[in-house]
Amino acid sequence: MSDATIGRLQSIFPELTVEHHPVLGTVAGGSAASSVGGQVPSVISVPIEIDPRIERMVRLAILSAPAVILVGPPGSGKTTLLRQVVDRIVADPKSFGFQAGPTGVEWSAAEENWSATDLVGGQTIDGGELRFRPGRVLSAVAGGRWLIIDEVNRADMDRIFGGLLTWLSGQDVTLGAVSPSIGSPQVELGWSGTATCSVENAGLLTTPTAGEGPVRYLAGTEWRLLGTYNALDAQRVFRFGHALGRRFLRVPIPAADADKFRIALLGQDSGLPEPLLDAIVAIYSAHLQNSMTTLGPALFLRMADYIAAGVGTDAETLTGVSQVDRELLAEAYLVNVGTWLREMEDELPSLGRAIVEEHHALGQSEWEWIVEMSRVLS
After folding, report:
1. φ and ψ at 348, to 5 degrees?
2. Model-level pTM?
3. Where in the chain is the domain with CATH 3.40.50.300?
4. Distance (Å, rounded) from C-alpha 197 to C-alpha 182?
5. pLDDT for residue 321
């Protein structure tokens, strides 16, 4: 997106902020950052109005519980909303009911190959010897930082959480020994009973014989484990088990309605003619008709960029939707949403009827082409 377009959007939406792509290295607050090969490309978050009640649930859930997860369809803005709320808490914790708040925030994207060692900690080879290595949770506690795991269902949390289930219930747990040596100090995870985090006997992790243990990681009462969960993605990756789910407050983040989506789409200032914008809104609306096909607006907002790249600078002079434009619309839908269509196999006939017959957004031949090509993506 050009600087000129960003400037126009920010003149319309003063609250708009430039952020960085989370996969390439998002920086909280939109500050500049570098990556291998140069500047991290910036992306812009077009504001979609969030139901104040939803935002309140997120805020109060974080205030009232140590573990909170935002649940909703892909592209519904879970990560963006969580980032906005957490950034505001970090900036002014007292106004949100916290005494001190976190010293910072540690973001991690869950991965399928995560183990308990990655998340919590465990013994690993260090300098040719087995040593206990703190995982993400312990490292965050040691630094007084909140831990936020994006797309938690990408990892088998039921398998790797282990003793964290007991810990999230308010009890202390033993995670293992610093080393395999007889009498090696134990590593424990508990709660400090105060607002702040602390670590007792941390030096024993590097020099186990320097004193008596245990090494105790103590999370403060204001420490938080937060996350996002793609409900649709869970059909093919990992689900939260009941035991793990009970430890988290779960806040629903629904997809924006069609009217809010249209406002955000117009805010992109793509230069597309109204009939094409109407077609994108119609496709989005068709997905909203069934909870099993609902996806968030982010996936569909990107369609306008693809189509604009195809129709060129003369788009604003068009008054209708040509055959080429319909092909571009189908292509934009496929490359942005096609992967998710394979998770809706049983719903594709009804979704196709809604898009083709009810909303008249695509022709039957284009829909059949989309379904066929989406199989390649799976």
Report:
1. -60, -40
2. 0.80
3. 48-254
4. 29
5. 62
Whole-angstrom distance, CA of residue 83 vs CA of residue 103: 15
For 369, phi and psi rounded to 5 degrees? Answer: -65, -40
pLDDT number for residue 2? 44
CB 16 within 8 A of CB 44: yes
Omega prior to 47 cis, within 30 of 0: no
Angle (CA) 110-189-234 rounded to 5° is 25
Do residues 181 and 171 touch, judged by C-beta distance below 8 A? Answer: no
Asked if the 48-254 domain carries CATH number 3.40.50.300, the reply is yes
What's the mean pLDDT in 156-180? Answer: 87
How far apart CA 248 and CA 225 sit, in angstroms, is 9
The backbone torsions φ and ψ at residue 217, rounded to the nearest 5 degrees and listed phi first, read -95, 120
Specify the range with the lowest mean pLDDT, choosing from 20-24, 78-82, 322-326, 353-357.
Answer: 20-24
- Cα–Cα distance for residue pair 115/265, rounded to 1 Å: 40
CB 251 within 8 Å of CB 58: yes
Check whether the bond before 93 is cis (ω within 30° of 0).
no
